[in-house]
Amino acid sequence: MALLIRNGEIVTVGSRVRADIYVENETITRIGNGLEAPPNAEIIDATGKLVFPGFIDPHVHIYLPFMATFAKDTHETGSIAALIGGTTTYIEMCCPNRNDDAMAGYQLWKSKAEGKSACDYAFHMSVTKFVKETESQLRQIVADGTASFKIFLAYKNFFGVDDGEMYQTLELARRLGVIVTAHCENAELVARLQQKLLAEGKTGPEWHEPSRPESVEAEGTGRFATFLENTGATGYVVHLSCEKALHAALAAKSRGANIYVESVLPHFLLDKSYAERPGVEGMKHVMSPPLRAHHNQTVLWNALSLGSIDTVGTDHCPFDTDQKLLGKDSFVNIPNGIPGIEDRVNLLYTHGVKRGRLDLDRFVDAASTRAARLFGLFPRKGTIAVGGDADLVIYDTSYRGVVSAKSHHVNNDYSGFEGMEIEGRPSVVTVRGNVQVRDGRFIGDRARGKMLKREPSHF
Ligand code: URP
Ligand code: ZN
Ligand code: ZN
Are the beta carbons of 61 and 71 closer than 8 angstroms? Predict the structure, then answer.
């Protein structure tokens, strides 16, 4: 069925215009004023509302065997939560560990999503070792439409790669034109500091941050950047958390490294005092890199506003209270990660745009357009243009609410952002022209989502 969205204020990077949008067969076919529609078309009046391109979360974990347990969401729950929050596409980290076969892992991750997601999705393929079959497997995976890799410099002996494997991955990525995303922390230092703190009887969640201090992240970021400079590959630092690491990335960029930076929602809004709360309340806020000293937030907001931080993701990775308690005797056993997929857009809009830290243009860029450009989805995704997918978020800026686990759709018994105010939320969310969400309720097709095939573009 055709869809006509009338009289919204269409916001894309570099443009803000009041117009109608007409959609046929999943695609935007006309944008203009006074558009007519056939009698059977669905018509939505967007007067007084902003119309954004569907938001893209470039960093989520849905299926994730990790730290002796599994992240809580499935694609059924995660995609519905994403859509209610305005995210119409997410890129999931496909994370087989060092003992797994990469191709078997890729097929497993795909099977977990296929036919079960309500929003569109893609994968970053993790390279967790580099052995004789790795190159041919990665070539097949890229040919299958997964045009980005992921490496972990942390999580020694599980996901982590050594410098030789990082070099081989980046060399291959450069030849293939594939961008490499990287978790940048020095694995050896983390392991040593963890053992030192435990030996001193320091076992609570408040010791997670001191076991992975800012310098450890800055070293990882700087080393990744140095390897980019010396291979000519293009890289993307995920979940950057602090000023020291940002300096390392930007210094390399100023020397000519092809490096981009993502930070994630928790680091803009939460500081390390959350993880210092006693007992399980602290454990709920354990993630890596850890929540940092408060002054880093100002640095991150400013860098985001200037575009030195390119994108805002979530690193959505929900573990419930019982799972967090796996680490009650030792912080090193607390499953790392918190949920955020449902809250990213609303909290970024509220605490960024409404609080004057971010202009609307940069908000759309950081939460949608730049990820689309970097990861080979633009202009099909990440903007509102004739010929693009009709992924649209009609946004109600008059809505007032509060984030709470009592009302969220993520499969988790707590929210890391509990009690935070939101000033705005999606009124209507479409995926390729189908209305999936209305005013906080999922009303659409649970199997609407497709895997997005992407071409390498970083030559
Ligand atoms: O704490 C985190 N970030 N958990 C998920 C795994 C990762 O490092 O992205
Ligand atoms: Zn990570
Ligand atoms: Zn992650």
Answer: yes
The pLDDT of residue 112 is 98
Percentage helix, strand, coil, to 5, in the chain? Answer: 35, 25, 40
Task: Give the pLDDT confidence of 177-188 residue by residue, as tens digits.
Answer: 999 999 999 999
Rounded Cα distance, 215 and 263, in Å: 17
Pick from 217, 239, 288, 338 the residue to mutate for probing ligand 1's pocket: most ligand atoms within 8 Å of its CB: 288
User: What's the first-to-final CA gap in the chain, in angstroms?
Assistant: 40
**Atom from ligand 1 closest to the CA of residue 288:** 1
Say if residue 1's pLDDT is above 90.
Answer: no
Alpha helices in 15-152 (DSSP H): 75-84, 102-113, 134-143
State the pLDDT at residue 202. Answer: 98
* Ligand 1 site, CB within 6 A: 61, 183, 239, 287-288, 315, 317, 336-337
Closest listed residue to residue 432, CA positions, set 146, 121, 60 = 121
pLDDT mean across residues, the chain = 98
From residue 430, alpha-carbon distances to 122, 433, 445, 447 in Å are: 18, 5, 11, 14
Q: What is the mean pLDDT of residues 196-213?
A: 98
The yes-or-no verdict on residue 200 having pLDDT over 90 is yes
Q: How far is the C-alpha of 340 from the C-alpha of 54, rounded, in Å?
A: 17
Task: Give CA angle at 324 (124, 117), nearest 5°.
Answer: 35
pLDDT tens readout for residues 60-81: 999 999 999 999 999 999 999 9
Question: Phi and psi at residue 407, in whole multiples of 5°?
Answer: -115, -5
Tokens of 83: 């859509």
Looking at ligand 1, which residue's alpha carbon is closest to its atom 7? 288
